[in-house]
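ok trying again, last paste got cut off:
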Amino acid sequence: MTLGNAIKLIRTARNLTQREIAKKLKVSANYLSLIESDKRDPSLAFLNRLAGALEVPIAMLFVFQGEPLPGVPTSNIEKLREMLLRIDHMVVENSGRASRQDKA
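nice, full thing came through this time. structure:
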Protein backbone atom coordinates (compact mmCIF):
# COMPACT_ATOMS: atom_id res chain seq x y z
CA MET A 1 0.00 0.00 0.00
CA THR A 2 1.29 3.45 -0.83
CA LEU A 3 1.40 6.51 1.41
CA GLY A 4 -1.46 8.05 -0.55
CA ASN A 5 -3.58 4.92 -0.15
CA ALA A 6 -2.90 4.88 3.60
CA ILE A 7 -3.90 8.53 3.93
CA LYS A 8 -7.12 7.93 2.02
CA LEU A 9 -7.89 4.81 4.05
CA ILE A 10 -7.45 6.64 7.35
CA ARG A 11 -9.37 9.71 6.14
CA THR A 12 -12.32 7.67 4.91
CA ALA A 13 -12.31 5.52 8.05
CA ARG A 14 -12.72 8.77 9.97
CA ASN A 15 -15.63 9.76 7.68
CA LEU A 16 -13.82 12.91 6.62
CA THR A 17 -13.83 14.44 3.16
CA GLN A 18 -10.78 15.75 1.36
CA ARG A 19 -12.35 19.19 1.57
CA GLU A 20 -12.69 19.01 5.38
CA ILE A 21 -9.07 17.97 5.87
CA ALA A 22 -7.81 20.45 3.29
CA LYS A 23 -9.63 23.26 5.09
CA LYS A 24 -8.00 22.31 8.42
CA LEU A 25 -4.59 22.26 6.74
CA LYS A 26 -5.19 25.42 4.69
CA VAL A 27 -4.44 23.67 1.40
CA SER A 28 -6.66 22.91 -1.57
CA ALA A 29 -8.68 19.71 -1.75
CA ASN A 30 -7.00 19.22 -5.14
CA TYR A 31 -3.57 19.15 -3.46
CA LEU A 32 -4.78 16.54 -0.98
CA SER A 33 -6.20 14.53 -3.88
CA LEU A 34 -2.81 14.62 -5.60
CA ILE A 35 -1.16 13.33 -2.42
CA GLU A 36 -3.71 10.55 -2.04
CA SER A 37 -3.16 9.52 -5.67
CA ASP A 38 0.63 9.54 -5.10
CA LYS A 39 1.18 12.34 -7.63
CA ARG A 40 2.77 14.62 -5.02
CA ASP A 41 5.31 13.85 -2.32
CA PRO A 42 4.43 15.86 0.79
CA SER A 43 7.07 17.05 3.21
CA LEU A 44 7.47 15.42 6.59
CA ALA A 45 6.23 18.64 8.19
CA PHE A 46 3.05 18.47 6.10
CA LEU A 47 2.58 14.79 6.97
CA ASN A 48 2.90 15.68 10.64
CA ARG A 49 0.17 18.32 10.27
CA LEU A 50 -1.95 15.88 8.27
CA ALA A 51 -1.63 13.20 10.94
CA GLY A 52 -2.76 15.79 13.48
CA ALA A 53 -5.77 16.70 11.36
CA LEU A 54 -6.63 13.00 11.03
CA GLU A 55 -6.06 12.58 14.78
CA VAL A 56 -3.62 9.69 14.36
CA PRO A 57 0.05 9.28 15.20
CA ILE A 58 2.18 10.03 12.16
CA ALA A 59 3.39 6.42 12.24
CA MET A 60 -0.09 5.30 11.17
CA LEU A 61 0.55 6.88 7.77
CA PHE A 62 3.50 4.55 7.26
CA VAL A 63 2.35 1.34 8.95
CA PHE A 64 1.02 -0.13 5.70
CA GLN A 65 4.14 0.55 3.68
CA GLY A 66 7.54 -0.81 3.10
CA GLU A 67 9.32 -4.02 2.62
CA PRO A 68 9.76 -6.48 5.45
CA LEU A 69 12.82 -5.84 7.58
CA PRO A 70 15.70 -8.22 7.02
CA GLY A 71 15.48 -11.10 9.48
CA VAL A 72 11.95 -10.22 10.65
CA PRO A 73 9.34 -12.76 9.58
CA THR A 74 6.55 -11.27 7.49
CA SER A 75 3.99 -12.76 9.86
CA ASN A 76 5.42 -10.64 12.70
CA ILE A 77 5.10 -7.47 10.63
CA GLU A 78 1.50 -8.35 9.77
CA LYS A 79 0.77 -8.94 13.47
CA LEU A 80 2.27 -5.53 14.28
CA ARG A 81 0.16 -3.83 11.61
CA GLU A 82 -2.96 -5.55 12.90
CA MET A 83 -2.13 -4.54 16.47
CA LEU A 84 -1.61 -0.90 15.46
CA LEU A 85 -4.93 -0.88 13.64
CA ARG A 86 -6.65 -2.27 16.73
CA ILE A 87 -5.02 0.38 18.91
CA ASP A 88 -6.11 3.07 16.48
CA HIS A 89 -9.66 1.68 16.53
CA MET A 90 -9.69 1.72 20.34
CA VAL A 91 -8.49 5.33 20.38
CA VAL A 92 -11.27 6.32 17.98
CA GLU A 93 -13.87 4.44 20.02
CA ASN A 94 -12.69 6.02 23.29
CA SER A 95 -12.61 9.53 21.85
CA GLY A 96 -16.17 9.04 20.59
CA ARG A 97 -17.30 7.93 24.02
CA ALA A 98 -15.59 10.89 25.65
CA SER A 99 -17.32 13.27 23.24
CA ARG A 100 -20.71 11.74 23.98
CA GLN A 101 -20.09 11.94 27.73
CA ASP A 102 -19.04 15.58 27.45
CA LYS A 103 -22.33 16.37 25.72
CA ALA A 104 -24.41 14.54 28.33
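cool. The chain has a mean pLDDT of 81. The radius of gyration is 15 Å.
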